[in-house]
Design a protein that fits this description.
single chain, alpha/beta, 15 helices, binds ligand F0G
């Protein structure tokens, strides 16, 4: 069995790097993936491993209880697993969704609810592995740009691992449930005057020097962890692959990780049939959809606009990897408009489950794909609900009051006469211009001590 290594992802001449080299792109600018060699997996070994996974599911050891580390044979880059940062995550349920099935025109519909993770979104599956790698690499400060869930998850795992965290968020454009998490977990929270795509550019510059470790899904170790969402789903389904897995698409890390999971599972003989992946984008943030329809495989960034703020992303980092996931699985891309997302979200709620708006794109997309005959009513479909209902309560309350606006303006003046003492423990977000130099000076002052390597 060869040691795992990093390789550039793309058609150009592949470049390889060791897993313990801090880098997020190859010298040619392509994104990186972890290349795993699982050795010979014959039928006997597959049967034995499936039994091991069953046994671990009943264990109380954190590393076995985690729905990520339970499948650690698929995560050789992190061996020997002695520095694992785990909550533990995963173990998210697969629900039957009868009202969603009726709504979409399917005879049955299942939802794997990643919102049941420790910080309420699927990001925890990838964050446990990426923070574990950050520990292995000796990082003291980690950072991400985020529409809210990555920042919530990163700051939680960083706090657990004793690291500082810095989050870059688009000013006024993330849901309060998510903002409250990164503040409470102690992240230096920088609101920039710009959108997610601009925040993503800045964080990559900030992390260039290596003093701060980047934990967006451009980090290939995030994708490794997110792979296990599909491994766990198949385990829960008795290793019987559904016909379709439907997933929202934003920065496209999740879709990419699902493609990698299926390709590795198929190669190892864990599954014969590969589920088809349907990626659903909001119509106002649809670069992958545009490329799929034009059949041109070209990423043309868009100016993103949607109330599903989690996927308000116009220039996705993992575009090429998502194309692979669609090609490999015979997948499709669909888009849904704001009305379709809002109504589908209320249908998810009517099944007693609930989700945040971005997750409901899956049910909305499913309905469109059944209506257009791409998904057959008798096919088995699993929608991935990516985030918890409570992440964005404003959206839900506004919907049910008939006050849901695409261009909603929030006024945030709070008044009162009896202020409660916060004991000097408040962690106020800072507002900075979208200027990398000013931001770096600020971080150097706040995050590094005397003698530390600065940015
Ligand atoms: N659903 C939710 C709830 C999300 O938070 C995100 C992404 C997505 C879907 C899209 O997943 O980026 O892998 O295609 N949220 C990121 C964040 C970008 O910063 O929290 P993707």
């Amino acid at each position: 069995m060869k040691k795992p290594f990093l390789r550039t992802f793309g058609q150009k001449e592949p470049q390889s790097y060791p897993v313990d080299e801090i880098r997020y792109r190859g010298d040619n600018g392509d994104t990186l993936e972890v290349v795993n060699d699982f050795g010979v997996m014959d039928e006997k070994k597959v049967r034995r491993l499936k039994n091991v996974f069953d046994k671990r599911a009943g264990s109380w050891e954190t590393i076995d209880r985690s729905g990520v580390w339970r499948y650690r044979e698929f995560l050789p880059a992190f061996a020997p697993f002695d520095t694992v940062a785990s909550m533990p995550e995963g173990n998210t349920p697969v629900f039957s969704m009868p009202r969603c099935a009726d709504y979409t025109g399917l005879s049955g519909l299942f939802a794997k609810h990643q919102g049941m993770n420790p910080t309420g979104s699927f990001k925890d599956n990838g964050m446990t592995t990426a923070v574990t790698m950050a520990k292995k690499l000796g990082s003291k400060v980690v950072a991400c740009a985020s529409t809210g869930n990555t920042s919530a998850s990163m700051s939680a795992y960083a706090a657990r691992a004793g690291m500082k965290s810095i989050v870059f968020i688009p000013n006024g454009q993330i849901a309060y449930g998510k903002l409250s998490q990164s503040l409470d977990y102690g992240a230096l929270t920088i609101q920039i005057d710009g959108d997610f795509d601009r925040a993503m550019d800045i964080v990559q510059e900030v992390c260039d020097s290596g003093a701060v470790y980047l934990l967006n899904s451009i980090n290939p170790f995030r994708i490794e962890g997110q792979k296990t969402i599909m491994i766990e789903m198949l385990h829960q389904l008795g290793w019987n692959a559904p016909d379709w897995v439907v997933v929202p698409g934003g920065n496209l890390g999740n879709s990419s990780s699902f493609g990698k999971a299926f390709s590795e599972l198929k190669k190892c003989g864990f599954i014969d049939k590969v589920p088809r992946i349907a990626v659903i984008q909001a119509q106002g943030a649809n670069p992958l959809y545009n490329s799929f329809i034009a059949k041109n495989r070209i990423l043309t960034p868009v100016h993103a606009d949607t109330r599903a703020t989690a996927i308000k992303i116009g220039n996705p980092v993992s575009f090429d990897k998502a194309l692979f996931a669609i090609d490999f699985t015979g997948g499709v891309v669909e888009q849904v408009n704001e009305d379709e997302i809002a109504i589908a979200k209320s249908v998810v709620g009517s099944d007693g489950i609930g989700s945040e708006p971005a997750s409901a794109t899956t049910v909305a997309g499913c309905k469109k794909l059944v209506d257009s005959g791409v998904i057959k009513p008798s096919e088995m479909v699993v929608c991935i609900l990516t985030g918890n209902l409570l992440k964005d309560p404003d959206y839900t309350v506004e919907f049910h009051r008939d006050e849901l606006y695409l261009d909603a303006k929030r006024t945030l003046s709070v008044t009162g006469t009896r202020r409660i003492n916060t004991g000097g423990r408040s962690n106020r977000p800072v507002q900075l211009p979208a200027d990398t130099k000013i931001i770096i000076d600020y971080i150097n002052e706040k995050c590094f001590g005397h003698g530390d390597t600065r940015i």
